[in-house]
Amino acid sequence: MKYSKATNYALHTMLFMMAAGTDKPVGVQQLAERQGVSPTYLSKILTKLVKGGLIESASGANGGYRLKRKKEDISFLDVIHAIEGTASLFECSLDHSSECLIQQVMVEGEQKMEQHLQNQKLSTLAEKITVVL
């Protein structure tokens, strides 16, 4: 299984914001430079994180983005769902009953993986690093 680059950037952006430990908005330029990515591209990712309720934007001269939820409540899965959506990774391509045994095994595997990612909090990693923005 492979997640998109957008998910990679989103996870790192959230980690940077948490590790910085500031309530002040962080500009997209700072976040983009930190990852070596285009601010325009990162803005699209940040928009998805805003729509997912993980961060909020602040406009104005000192505007940018800040966490909307308590950092301890944000899991890997929250970020992944904000970027990738919640659709199943596997869809059986054969035209047979909805009781596909292969589909059942794949869905069970996804559920176990999602449970693990839901239990993993980015704040745990943020405590281990120092980030200056």
Explain this structure.
53% of the residues lie in helices and 6% in strands. By secondary structure, it is mainly α. A two-stranded antiparallel ribbon has the order 1-2. The radius of gyration is 17 Å and the shape is elongated.
Question: How do you describe this structure in short?
Answer:
By secondary structure, the protein is mainly α.
Strand content: 5-15%
Structural class: mainly alpha
Separation, N- and C-terminal Cα atoms: 32 Å
Query: What is the percent of helical residues?
Result: 40-55%
Low-confidence runs of at least 5 consecutive residues: none
* Number of helical segments with 4 or more residues: 6
Major sheet: size, sense and barrel closure? 2 strands, antiparallel
Strand tally is 2
Q: Which shape, going by the Cα principal axes?
A: elongated
Main sheet strand line-up: 1-2
Note the run of SSEs as H and E: HHHEEHHH
Radius of gyration based on Cα positions: 17 Å
Q: What integer is the average pLDDT?
A: 91
